Structures are given as C-alpha cells and as structure tokens.
Amino acid sequence: MIRFLEISNHILFWYYTASNTAYLVMLIVALKTSAVHKRKLQSHRLNWVKETPMAPPITIIAPAHNEESSIRVAVRNLLDLDYPELEIIIVNDGSEDRTFEEMRDEFRLRVVRAVYVPQAKSADVRGLYRSDLDSRLLVVDKKPGGSKADAVNAGLNAATSPYVCIVDADSILERDGLLRIMLPVLDDPKRVIAVGGIIRVLNGSEIKAGRLQRVRLPRKGIEVIQVIEYLRAFLIGREAWSQGNMLTIISGAFGVFRTDLVRAVGGYRQSAIGEDFDLVARLHRHLRQQGVAYRIPFVPDPVCWTEAPSDLKSLGRQRARWHKGLLDVLWHSRDMLFKRRYGRIGWLALPYLWLFELIAPVIELSGIVTIILAACMGALSREFFLQFLIFGYAFATIISIGSVLQEEITYKRYNDWQDVVRLVSYCFLEHFPYRQMHMVWRLQGLVQYLRGDNTWKPLKRKGLESAGVR
Amino acid sequence: MPSIFERLYRVGPASLLFKAIIVAIVLDALLLAFILLRRTYRKRYFKKRDARVYELRQRWHALISGEIPFETWRRKPFDRRIVEEIALDAFEASGPDESARLLKFLRDSGLIEKRIFEARNHRGWRRLRALVALGRTRAPEGIHALAEGLRDSDLETRLASLRGLARTASPKAAEEILAWLGEEGLTVPDLPLQSALVQCCAERPQLLVPFVRNAQGPLREVLGRVLGEVATPSLGPDLLQFAGDELDELRASVARAMSHSNCELALNVLTELAQDRIWFVRLRAIVSLGKQSDGRAIPVLVHGLTDSNRLVRLRGAEALVGLNTEMASIFEQVVALQDRYGLHAYLTALENAGLRGRLESELRANARLSQSQKDHLFDVLQAGGLRVSEPATMETASKSATGLL
Fold it and tell me: How far is CA A356 from CA A8, A49, A236, A360, B386, in A?
C-alpha cells in the first residue's frame, strides 16, 4: 500500500509539473505572439479595411431565447457595428416572453419570403421577417429547438453571406470587433476558414444604452477570479494553440466561420452539449480528411463582452456543463486520436485536452485522496507535502500573473490602478478554495454526462444593463 | 542502462522541489515588479506626451504654416513623432483644401523625405512603420519607395507597401504593382492585392488588359477579378477577347465588366454568358443584364428564374423587379414558366423591394389581360405559389439543395 501511495504521489507530482510547464510554454508563446500581433496591427489601419471594396459580406447570427429585456438594445448594437457588408439574422428560438413582439415593434418587422434552405437541421420555422427600418435585419421566428445549436442552424439556413459570425444576443460586441476579427480573412481568404475572437467578463463595467462606457473590474471576488480565468484561457491558451494551427475551440459567443464549410459539416450538432467546440472539431476533421490546407486563427483584440455568473450556484452549473461538453466532444472525436491524417490535432491538441483538461479533476481528486491516505498511514513526509504545496501555489500563480501581464502589455483594458492591484491580488487568492470547488463542479459534469443527464438549465443573469452594476 | 521512467523516478520530486520553489517565487516577484514598473513608466510617459500634444496643438497653425521653424521640432524625435501623428490623422480626415495644405506641410517640413529615407534604408519593423506612414501621406513621391517595399522578403512589409500604394489610388502605383507582379508573380494573398489594384486602376483600367492577357494561373484569376471590378464602357471592345476565355473567373469578370457597357454588343455577350455552364458566370451575367435596365433583357432574365442555381434565380428576380417596368407583363411571364422555384424567387424579390402593391395595381389597370387571366394571376399572387393542380416544372430547378419555405 505504501509503495502504491509513493508511486501515485510521484505520478501526481509529474502530472502537475507537466501540466503547468505546458501552460508556461504557452505563456511564452502567447507573449511573443501578442507582441508581434500588436506591431502588425500598426500596418493594418482599420479605416482602410473599412474602405476596401473587397471586404467579404458577413451574416451575423444571434440566437435569442426569452431576451425581452435586452433584445432591442442588443439588435441596435449589432446594427451599429462597423462593417461595410452586413446582414443580421436574429433567431427567435421559441421565446415564451415578448422577445419577438419587442423586435417587431422596434424595428417594424414584416413577413417576407426570404430564402431559407434547410441544409442544417433545425426545428420548424414559423416565419421570416425583415425590418422596414433597416433591410439588413432579418428575424427568423422558429419553434423552440431546445438548444443553441438548433437556433444557430436556423440562422445558418437563412444566411446569404460567405461568412457567418455567431454571437450571443446577450453579449456586447465592440464596434470595430468585426473589422478586427476579419483581418486574418482579408489577409489570407483562401486558407483562413474560421476565426475566434476574445470573450471578456462584462460584470462591473459601466454600460449605458447597451454600450460599454468604461471597463472596470467586478466587485465580487468570484467574478474577478473569472476575469483571470478568461484572460488565462484566451490570452494564453487560445493564442498559443492558434500559433500551431491547433485551435480547437472558438467561443460560441463570438466567432467567424466560412458559411459553405459550416453547411458542409451539417451546421451545429443539435445534441452537442458544447456546440461551439464540437463545430470546430468537426471542421478540423472535415478539412483534414479532404487534405485541404487551412488555418483557424485566434485574434485577441476584437472583444465581445459577456456577463459571467455572479453566484456560486450558477457558476457551478456553467462549469459542470462546460466539462460535460468537453467530454461529449472528445468522446465523439476519439477516433481522431493518434491518427496520421489528423496531424497535430490528433497527436497533440486532442491528447492534451484529454490528459490535462478532461481528466484533470479526476487526477486532482485522486491526488487529494492519496495524500490524505498517506498522511493517515504515516507515509507522508510533512516537509515534502508543505514544499509541494508552496511549489504548486507559486507555479500556478506565475501562470495567472502571466496572463495579467499579457493583458497589461498588449490590450490594457483595465486602466484603473485599483483594478490592476485587485486583479493581481486575486492571482494569489484563487487557489483556495476556488480551485477545489472548480474541481468538484467539473467532476459533477463528468458524472452527469455518464448518467446521461444532458438537460440544459438556464443560468441566472442580471441582463446587460444591470450586469455592469458594481 | 536504466529506462527514462526509472531515471525520472530516481530524480524524484524531493530533489527538485526546493529549487523549483525558489525559481517559481522569483518568477512571481519578477512578473509583479515588471507590471508595476511598466505601469509607472507608461503613466509618466503618457502624462508627458499628453502635455506636449496639448502644447503643440495650441500652436498647430503656426507649426504647419512654418511660422515656427521646422527645425525647432524636427530634430527632437519625441516632438517629431507627435507632429507627424497629428498631421497624418488630420490629413486622413480632411477635405481637399485642408489635405493639400497638410501635404505641403509634410513636404516642406521634410517628414515625407525622412519617411522615404527610412522606407528605403531600414529593415524590419522600422521599415514597416515608415511604409505605413508613407502610405498615409498618399504622396506621389513616396510611390517608388513603397514599390521597393514590395520586393522585401517579409510578407508583412510587402503587405504594408501594397496597402500604402493602394492609398495613393494612382495609375502610377498601379504600374508599379503590375510591374512587380510581372517580375515576381503572386507573392501576397489575393484580397489585399485585389483591393490595391481596384483602387489604383480605377482611373485607368486599360492598364490591366495586357497583364490579364499574359498572366498565368491564379494571378490571371486575380487580375481578371480586378478587371471585372474596374472596367468602364470604353473597355468594351478590349473585354470581348476574354468572353470566350477558358478561365471561368475571367468570363465571370467579363460578364461583370459588361454591366458598364450599354452597347448592343454587350447585350449579346451577356445573353450568351447567361447560358454559361458555370453558375457564377451566369450569375454575373444576370446581374449585369439587370444593371443595363434594358427591356430587351427581360426574356433572358425571366429564363434565369429557371436556373438550377438558387443565387442565379434570386439575382434574376431582383433584376426583373429592379427594372421597375412592365410589371404585370413580367409577372405573367414568370407565372407562365410554371416553375415554383422561379416564382418564389420573384415574389421574394418583389416583397423585399416593397413593390407588391404596385404590381397589384398594375394588374388591375392592365387592359390587355382578360378578367380570367387577371383572376388567375391574383390567385397566384395571393397564394404565393402555383396551385396544386398545376404541376411545377421540376426539371429546371435543382432538386437537391432547394427546400424553400
């Protein structure tokens, strides 16, 4: 038994070191990439992009389900986006409140016979409506499909542009966000088939009439920790993975895709729990099977602001769901593992996700259990345990501070000194007990998936205007 | 020899841990210190810069008129960068008179000359910055330096040069770009190149014709697309040579370019191209026919409603609606097609244009149609489709990807 505990402690140590070293490598890659990207932006003057006659048209697809309080502002924001060729499709996904009526009254919608080609599976459409005030706006009113994937598919079926941008109706897109996210497409339209943008936490910022006035850090600790998590995930993780063309996730709240390819893979999988991750995985599969040269870059400066859960219950639900989604997609993509035709996706990106994301909570839990067992059996060196804790703490903090540094030297959205001090402070505070709670939520997600519990429970949200209340 | 696993096992966590803790803590401290120092430095820098910007803006008119000698600020890099930035920002936002004044200032003060020097003699990011600034000035004397940047080994620098040349929007810049393409072929992505050529060739599109004729492969496609974008009526005869070209893109470009030409010949060529085997060539031809606003194009456009491609049908319908004439007669022809996809496309276009009411009143007022014909047409219009008893002509429309609502 003691031998077993010794071996498992060794495994735990090396697993932990490998996982953090991987993140450290990503941090270094991301720092370098961001510096290059920032310089590159100097040669890309956005107004020149806006004036180019070659900017490809984009259809924005925003699914909306029971969004009566914010839909007017959200649609107006989308119509105000800075992009020369724009079509906006709002999919009213069987809302039970006044979402549709709000849009109908505000934008003077009338029934039209717009083209709807049901290539991607979706629930029945009740009608298509175009705005009399702004012909770029099309509303697809459909029966409830029970998933975001279903709603996006309906939008996809009505889209007429070569590119679609999927956004959440309850998020705020920065005005030049589309121009920025399209830069990689404009540079290399043949190979760039999708682009991911960055999602940031809206909580705490000042919002007026649906527009972000001033970026501030949220007041609640749980929200600040999420800010750090988002920075780490986007500015380090995605930035680094995209360098090796191994980006496997484009957030469902903000991403651009080539329409023909999304249709070719059948749109979003309706039963997928993490539909955004699933789509990108299927795009990789499709293109690698075809042997096509392609790129899926991540652009760190076009920002979409979204409301993060502000209470533990909602956050726990969200994280459990994310982990369920991860398992669902990885399970469906298991045949891509270690296959030559899938290249680095099959050899590096997916194995990484299996090893350091999916089973991480299981390893963490087993680590805790073996440490307790070892302590009970007197096999645990107190000195070693303490040292390991300090090391783990200091190492994980490097990654968190690194993500704040990355934010500081590149995009610097948090200008207030007070905010930065708080952000850095939470880099030290997030390890106990948040990390442990996070582990439990992720384990819950795994258990729910294995039990077949895939129901979606809506998260408690304050709405755009009140999300910003500090 | 022990295996790697054994060796790792022997190294063990204990021997590494203490050193690792030290390294991790030092790194944490360094990162924190860097963030704090950088913030402090930047705060001071921006404070100083903002104060200087304010000062210089207060004396802006004296600065650009030369009342304040250029040497007083030009020798200080800090001031020079600020003045240049203000001038270029103003230049991009100003009208013709103001921009002429600012360009004179940029010339007289030696800023353009300096940027030309930097673009020619520096490498890497400094060259890139100089090229971008030069492009922003749109100064003709910068074209040669920008063109030299096209031959740089770095893609970003080449793109910066290309964008800079695009800003000048001059035929001279187009000549430089085309000459470079002739030498080196396609070494930049299509879209920025197309964009630059569209802007620079707009004044003299005929520059493109010999290059299109002689280019090969993907470059020919790109040039063809640009030609389609910038062609003018005067280019009509030159374009005819490409109407039967084997390259689909080029035929599509000819179809697009012909929309500017309203001669008899253009109508014939477009009628021919509207029957092309490639859908996007037909699409371009249909769109161009619509732009011609010529009643003689109606039969071809009506026939376009039976195309197997959804987009061709839609654009055909939009073109017919856009003619804004003979609506009752056109609708009668559309119904007579007995093609429900074509009819759907037409009704969609009609409703999108908000012209349904007008069609109804024209139908009512039409003296040529009998009452029963009118009733039938109204039936179709109200039902939004053909009656079940009237079989749709399925052969003409694509059966696969056209499930219409």
Answer: 17, 40, 15, 5, 60
Token pair for A396: 């994980």
**What total of structural domains would you count in chain A?**
2
Domain boundary among A350, A374, A401: A350
* Angle value at C-alpha A194, between A192 and A199, nearest 5 degrees: 130
Contact B401 A113 (CB under 8 A): no
User: Burial level of B63, CB count in 10 A (0-12/13-18/19+)?
Assistant: buried
With the CA atoms of A240, A243, A245 and A249 taken in that order, what torsion angle do they form, in degrees rounded to the nearest 10?
Answer: 30
Q: Model confidence at B17, in pLDDT bands (50, 70, 90)?
A: confident
CA distance A233 to A435: 15
Instruction: Output the pLDDT for position A467.
Output: 52
Output the pLDDT for position A463.
Answer: 61
What pTM does this model have?
0.82
User: Distance from A236 to chain B by nearest Cα, in Å?
Assistant: 15
Are A47 and B166 contacting, i.e. CB atoms less than 8 angstroms apart? no
Nearest residue in A to B225, CA atom = A54
pLDDT 10s digits, B247-282? 888 898 888 888 877 677 788 899 999 999 999 899
- Is residue B403 assigned to a domain? yes
Residue A36 lies in a domain: no
Q: Is residue A467 part of a domain?
A: no
Question: Which residue in B31, B345, B402 is closest to A401 by CB distance?
Answer: B31
What is the pLDDT at residue B51? 97
Measured between alpha carbons, how far is A90 from A64 in angstroms, rounded to an integer? 7
Q: Which domain holds residue B354?
A: 293-405
CATH of the domain at A267: 3.90.550.10
- Name the average pLDDT for chain A: 90
Query: Which residue ranges of chain A lie beneath pLDDT 50?
Result: 469-470
What does residue A303 show for φ and ψ, rounded to 5 degrees? Answer: -105, 135
What pLDDT is recorded for position A459? Answer: 63
| B 44-103 → A contacts, CB under 8 A | 92
Distances from the Cα of B393 to the Cαs of B166, B335, B337, B399, in angstroms? 49, 11, 8, 11
CB B163 to CB A190 under 8 A? no
**Option in A113, A401, A420 nearest B344 (CB):** A113
Taking a C-beta distance cutoff of 8 angstroms, is the pair A443, A326 a contact? no
The per-residue pLDDT for B247 is 86
Quote the domain boundaries for residue A364: 2-19+358-454
CB A10 within 8 A of CB B12: yes
Any chain B CB within 8 A of the CB of A424? yes
| Facing B192 at nearest CB: one of A13, A39, A186 | A186
pLDDT at A211: 83
Give the ipTM. Answer: 0.83
pLDDT tens sequence across B147-205: 999 999 999 899 999 999 999 999 999 999 999 999 999 999 888 899 899 999 999 99
What is the C-alpha end-to-end distance of chain B, expressed in Å?
72
What are the CA-CA distances from residue A160 to residues A89, A261, A314, B268 (Å)? 10, 14, 37, 30
Angstrom distance (rounded) from CA A277 to CA A237: 14
Alpha helices (H) along A44-139? 46-51, 71-79, 99-107
For a pLDDT cut of 70, what percent of chain B falls above it?
91
What 3-state DSSP class applies to A303? Answer: strand
Biggest CA-to-CA distance, chain A: 77
A115 vs B25, B39, B314: nearest CB: B314
Interface check A146 vs B, CB under 8 A: no
Quote the number of domains for chain B.
Answer: 1
Question: CB within 8 A of A245, min separation 6: which ones?
Answer: A294, A295, A296, A344
